[in-house]
Amino acid sequence: MTKPLEEAIASVRAAPSIDIHGKAYSTVATRVEVFRKHFGLEFGIRTTVIDSTEPHVRMYAEILDANGRVIASGHAEENRNYGNINKTSALEN
To answer: N or C, where is the chain less crowded by C-beta within 10 Å?
Structure first.
């Protein structure tokens, strides 16, 4: 792992978190703030809604370098019927 990435991971772990079902959770806002602090505008984040058919939200996210090349990607799915946060914020999650 590269030093900036290790430092960013350590910063996320040290950042304030909230407890959700007994697990520490860093909000997206906190993670993006740490990302920008460590990587500035050198990289970008692009998210795409794949599907938002009730009750599910499916997303795809990419980290891009300054040339627009994808260097990391991931998928997520949330169910609006699961938990109080997802009832109002499934898309954000």
So the answer is: N
Cross-strand partners of 27: none
Task: Using alpha carbons, select from 61, 66, 59 the residue that is nearest to residue 45.
Answer: 61
Q: Does the structure show a pLDDT above 80 at 64?
A: yes
Structure tokens at 76: 């997520």
**Close Cβ partners of 29 (under 8 Å, ≥ 6 residues apart):** none
Closest CA to 44 of 30, 57, 32: 32
Query: Mean of the pLDDT values across residues 18-24?
Result: 87
The confidence band for 77, taking pLDDT boundaries of 50, 70 and 90, is: very high
* pTM tops 0.90, yes or no: no
* H or E element at residue 45: strand 44-51
Closest CA to 73 of 56, 53, 52, 50: 50
DSSP state of 53: -
Q: Cα separation of 58 and 14, whole Å?
A: 29
